[in-house]
Amino acid sequence: MRGKWQKAGAAAIGIALMLGSRAASAQGASSGPSVAVQETTSGAEITPEQRQELLKAGHYGVPARDEQRAFGSVPLPIPGDVFSRGASEQKTPERQKGLFPNSWHDFVNQDGFFGDPWGARTWLADHGVTVGGRYFQDTAGNPFGGKSRAVRYADEEALSLDFDLKKLTGVAFNAGTLHFLTLARQGAGLGNTLPAIDSPMEIYGAGETMRLGRLSWEMHWNNYVHTEVGEINTENDFEQSSTYWGANLYCQFQNNGICGMPQSIAMNSGYGFYPTAHPGAWIKLYPAGNDHYLVQFGAYSVDPTITGVRNGWKMNLHGATGTYLPFQLGWHQGGTDDYSGPLQTNVKIGGYWDTSEVKNVYGQMGTYYIPASAAQDAPVSKVRGRFGGWFQFDRMLQRDGADPHRGTAFFASFTWGDPRTAIAPYFVTAGITRKGTFASRPNDTISFGMKALWANPKVTHWIEHLQHTGRGAGLYAPHSEEAIELNYGYWPTRWLLLRPGLQYLWNPGAVKRYKDAMLIDLESAISF
């Protein structure tokens, strides 16, 4: 069965490549402006008026929506996304005359590896169909520390189709956008061998199979009300990363504790995370008619079985345990892009209620690699209704005066979970990304980030109780797990990413059983 899905995935990707694709990466498809001034195809200077027009749409006519930088739902929510897929200061390239780019310059600067064969990509966008695809991989190994030495590799291939129903049908009114995303994952993760509570490889997980990632209808009714309904995930719209320079700020890191959201919320509740898709809906209200203020509510099916290998295309409520009900308030300040005007600042405060009935934290101690025997006499019980909340802050710290396309952005988050059931009731992330590392590397990045997870003290006290009573032989009480990451994002072209990095992990598995681990990792991505 798995082989059939992989063949189907390869066929789907092949179709995407034949058509040509819009962009490899998530946030760029419709959310961000250009990262650097490129040479125009004609060599002429760009006037300020031309610049504003070019920033409104990308090479292939994809509009940039400013509200998506802070609060937006993006067409392809994949990690490691490239900068500025949705808008560019580079003039529209000349129509590609054949299968291959017209010149080496066009090949290096085009939005995807396959460019715009015979102009098909542009033609499709003009008629309401945008196609995206990419290959993305994580490789990581620990030369020392942890339970054992190991190297692991995992990858993902993704295909997205977005249909502008107004363009596609020719109706005179806005009919919204139909989103479709499918993907296939292969490989293995390093988290189990370390062990680690949060995987150091964010691309690994959710069933190594082909699956549906999104099938939904999104509608912008007016400047005040936006909605989406269908098969979606919560990660795209609640406790999500803001967009800087057209890119997901959290996903400048490989550690899954940071990218694509503060990981504890998925551990503590029925929060639906990428790449899974759940029946759900949300509504976003913009009281001022712009992106300055946000009031947002959602409802999603909670399905613990959705990550299973056989459930990649599950589109029903069978096996659902309840409903995840999040809300979020947002405040945004900034210019019309990240290169002029006020520096971008975002604040988000949110919370959730999960109606599912689950075991309390004593019944979930296996997450800390504690054997089931330790819970035999523990006060395990059922709890209906989990709750929690979060606070997020991010800001562009500075913009270079000599080149406003270079700058520095910072983020921090705090996530809290129901102490009765939460695996990690307290969770913190923070990071800083510098874009534009050297004079000759305007798009490269250097990023430093951290995550800290605190174990539920109920579990800690229970294991300590067993140790004090002589029943805790071989058991280690969990306390905390911390990690830092330093990486360099190298962009040799607009469609190729190479991101080597280092991670250091304290207390693998949140226990003082193994030595702290050093990880060497590499992410790479090709947008088609």
TrEMBL record:
Residues 28-48 are annotated as: Disordered. It holds the Pfam family OprB. Belongs to the OprB family. Residues 1-26 form the signal peptide. Keywords: Signal. InterPro entries: Carb-sel_porin_OprB, OprB_Porin, OprB_sf. This is Carbohydrate porin. The keyword Signal applies.
